[in-house]
UniProtKB/TrEMBL annotation:
Species of origin: Schizosaccharomyces octosporus (strain yFS286) (Fission yeast)
Its EC number(s): 1.8.4.12
Pfam families xrefs: SelR
Residues of the MsrB domain: 38-162
InterPro entries for the chain: Met_Sox_Rdtase_MsrB, Met_Sox_Rdtase_MsrB_dom, Mss4-like_sf
Family, as annotated: Belongs to the MsrB Met sulfoxide reductase family.
Record-linked NCBIfam families: peptide-methionine (R)-S-oxide reductase MsrB
Protein name per UniProt: Peptide-methionine (R)-S-oxide reductase
Alphabetical keyword list: Metal-binding, Oxidoreductase, Zinc
Entry keyword Metal-binding: yes
Amino acid sequence: MKRFFLKSIPTLQYRCFQTFFFQKNPSTNMKYPLDKSDQEWRKELDPEQYRVLRNKGTELPGSGKYTNYFPEKGVFVCAACKELLYKADTKFESHCGWPAFYDNLPGKVKRIEDDSYGMRRTEVVCSNCGGHLGHVFKGEGYAVPTNERHCINSVSLDFHKEETNNK
């Protein structure tokens, strides 16, 4: 039955099906300085944070608490491990439905090529714990110094008014 089902799907649909159900995201198997078990993450994160940060989910557009929040000073940190990620002055209005930043703090975000769901994108994860933050898009024409948009899930972030320590 399984063979008949797979052969009956046209090639393009099958490739999308295969990508969606069988492709592993490379960041899942990487090691990070902060290494916790799945059980530990489940205890520390609320269900939505766990879904996004650990299972590479995406929050609904426009639903995040930081989407329309534009502080002049401070720093956005990883909601899982509190690693400093983005300065407040790099956040900009992109009208995409998620918080957008044009640059991260040096060495705080790891970029990983992401071919999931039949698309070619660049995933960004916290370089300390590997938590999924979102994706980076280049060349969209925003008037920002880097010509990049880091499209980040609010649930992956916390905000601190003052940059108290720079790990």
